[in-house]
Specification:
The protein has 124 residues and is mainly beta. It has no helices and eleven strands. 0% of the residues lie in helices and 51% in strands.
């Protein structure tokens, strides 16, 4: 069993930055590829970023490429999502997910474990 707890969400102006964290506990952190998804009101859950178990490779959704960066700290059992140049359309609940398999492209149905999410609101 893996527990995931997101933090770092909040209210930010367009053009600003936020750094989300996802702390994990339970089984070995390095055994899991880690993912970020988001879901805006009335929309489907959308892939944001993924990072391999080793942290050597990452992929991003088209809407965040060049603005968001995912990384992981094995010593802290934590994965991060650095979000820069935030836009109004980035407003959503952001979820952390984990799965032993590194999917490309990843889909929500593939994920074994989910956090409860953290709300990011971008204002004009």
């Amino acid at each position: 069993q893996v527990q995931l707890v997101e933090s770092g969400g909040g209210l930010v102006q367009a053009g600003g930055s936020l750094r989300l964290s996802c702390a994990t506990s339970g089984r070995t952190f390095s055994s899991y590829a880690m993912y970020w998804f988001r879901q805006a009101p009335g929309k489907e859950r959308e892939f944001v970023a993924a990072i391999t178990r080793s942290g050597s490779s990452a992929t991003y959704g088209d809407s965040v490429k060049g603005r968001f960066t995912v990384d992981r700290d094995t010593a802290k059992n934590t994965v991060y999502l650095q979000m820069n140049s935030l836009k109004l359309d980035d407003t959503a609940v952001y979820y952390c997910a984990a799965d032993p398999t590194y999917y490309n492209p990843p889909k929500p149905a593939n994920m074994d474990y989910w956090g409860k999410g953290t709300l990011v609101t971008v204002s004009s």
